Amino acid sequence: xxxxxxxxxxxxxxxxxxxxxxxxxxxxxxxxxxxxxxxxxxxxxxxxxxxxxxxxxxxxxxxxxxxxxxxxxxxxxxxxxxxxxxxxxxxxxxxxxxxxxxxxxxxxxxxxxxxxxxxxxxxxxxxxxxxxxxxxxxxxxxxxxxxxxxxxxxxxxxxxxxxxxxxxxxxxxxxxxxxxxxxxxxxxxxxxxxxxxxxxxxxxxxxxxxxxxxxxxxxxxxxxxxxxxxxxxxxxxxxxxxxxxxxxxxxxxxxxxxxxxxxxxxxxxxxxxxxxxxxxxxxxxxxxxxxxxxxxxxxxxxxxxxxxxxxxxxxxxxxxxxxxxxxxxxxxxxxxxxxxxxxxxxxxxxxxxxxxxxxxxxxxxxxxxxxxxxxxxxxxxxxxxxxxxxxxxxxxxxxxxxxxxxxxxxxxxxxxxxxxxxxxxxxxxxxxxxxxxxxxxxxxxxxxxxxxxxxxxxxxxxxxxxxxxxxxxxxxxxxxxxxxxxxxxxxxxxxxxxxxxxxxxxxxxxxxxxxxxxxxxxxxxxxxxxxxxxxxxxxxxxxxxxxxxxxxxxxxxxxxxxxxxxxxxxxxxxxxxxxxxxxxxxxxxxxxxxxxxxxxxxxxxxxxxxxxxxxxxxxxxxxxxxxxxxxxxxxxxxxxxxxxxxxxxxxxxxxxxxxxxxxxxxxxxxxxxxxxxxxxxxxxxxxxxxxxxxxxxxxxxxxxxxxxxxxxxxxxxxxxxxxxxxxxxxxxxxxxxxxxxxxxxxxxxxxxxxxxxxxxxxxxxxxxxxxxxxxxxxxxxxxxxxxxxxxxxxxxxxxxxxxxxxxxxxxxxxxxxxxxxxxxxxxxxxxxxxxxxxxxxxxxxxx
Length: 847
Ligand SMILES: O=c1ccn([C@H]2C[C@H](O)[C@@H](COP(=O)(O)O)O2)c(=O)[nH]1
What we know:
847 residues, mainly alpha, two-stranded antiparallel sheet, five-stranded mixed sheet, binds ligand LAUPNLSC, 37 helices
């Protein structure tokens, strides 16, 4: 048997195998007729087909097993999942160890539905040798073209272009379209791949040559591109590059831009006949478009990103100020015909390229004089009301529940922006000032070198949403407020931050986020932001972002300053102080900072000592400022957190300086604030002329704080621990001692028997397993029912286990002497719990 025969026979078997495998499954697709005839003929299975018809395997297949010659039955077309179909078929094939041969490829190719499996399952059997040869040819041409494009230079272009694939189409009738399509694709890929994010001028010129020479002179290229619906994009590219070439000719650019947008009407005409009615082929056009859309979308998106990158690199300042709004708006209109989440997102990207203020300017343009003034610099919308319609449509679409919060947010953001701009007074003055302040790229300038003054364009920079910066409310150069209403940062930024950081957490984005967060902080909208983030389910991400950005950055900045060997010189100190002012602008922000887990982490990284050393410096620095007594008191109190400032050198300096410059600092009482002895020799009225006056009250008595801490220390002296003796003393709000304890073995556990060491490799041979902590003992030894509202004086900052007991017993304040384990996990956890539970803690020293 010939090889061919074998194969045919095999095919038939395979078809039956598939039939068996898919028996009783409803058909996924239902067009029959010529395709079926063709299949039966090609695969030589008419006999088997007849067999099958006479003994149908399932009722559901019956209706499909018709006369091969009969006209196509009207079977409802159902949505088939191509991947599933392919999988099913492949599964059936693999089960029988089928080697792909004549049923060469089973793929989903909606526009090349040629053959049909007679068993009701639509598969795409590409066994057409001619078609295989065709794709081979296309592939090789594609390869060839790509190679040529890759090697093309401005010098060899003339020679190279002669060999370009699309210039040597062998069979115009049948192959041209495919080859041209392939070429268009290659040209696009090559051109767009060549565009780096920051293209240099030579690249731009080089690509310009490629495009203009390679594309512009070839009419058929445009025909193809029209079919591909990519011509708008292509024209934009073309115009952009022409613009580079002749960028002084604004009017020409303007004209070209507008004429390129008129090509949109050709798309319209494909959907409608001359009378505006939908044409018969509308469905197929939609399918064609839908198929082409993705490729087109991907490319145009890259293009838009490219435009934005040019904008950012100042190369395209001219085109963006001369805004190709109409083109973009038309493009949006096109995409709106196929509303989907993906398209909406894309539309948002496009919208963010629209220079709204300029558009609004256009809307409000009354006189022709104004219009002509404006048109010198900006493209005018040929149909301004279209934008309004579009925006309404987009708004409505975004309300669909299937639209993700992120896209909804983007739409809302843009709508708000637009609304706000519309409400602004964009009058002649504004227009003039825009025109006046719009930077000009002069002929001969190298794009990258163009100097553009920051903030001089009154409007939203057409930067794509991905890198959207929230415009700062700074006044523009004319002194007027920017024509953008203020934003409600929290609600607008939360989802933005939440979603965008996921995609892109590069430095630039981090920087932007940091700016946003900083503003949010300044506006005191933190809680709202958190609420919004929570509501929008981006809270976690937001937290992560926050962690990554503002506090870390600030902390790092401070570390950088600290690591600077020149720390003490005034400049470094001022820098640090500036960062700290932000951190310590209020007591609230300080607490808030402590709440932020990342800050605690950052603080740990910083090492407490360095951090608080800076606090001390900050305090010193603040002395140079005009501070109110209250502020001084606050600053002074802060320095008293000696637990946080273990560098007495700095601490002492700042405290002394503060004290000296704040003579009226109110010391609230000896327990709560500065822990200084009320009675000192200098003001001790017991002494007069060096002799003690025994008729007067003694004033250098022990203050409460020292007294209770003294009791704790006294109790510690009972401890048998050879290394650390801890004592604790619990005191009521009325200063009554209600519990005392020290660290020791539990009752009944002989402290001569149990271990006091801590170095044994066996955990059970170390003291930690057995010792009852001082805090625990003090709590257990209490002589009152409840400890609610009590204070605890303890020699050592409590560990996490003790913190739990403290919190649970209702103690509200912990006063400690030593923080030697401060940076150990147990103390970190302890602080976290105490903070969360609202138990205050402070370090004191005894006089
Ligand atoms: O909050 C605390 C923490 C520790 N202790 C006791 C437990 C031990 O007896 C010592 C610590 O011994 P080291 O050798 O310093 O590790 O302090 C406590 O009572 N309360």
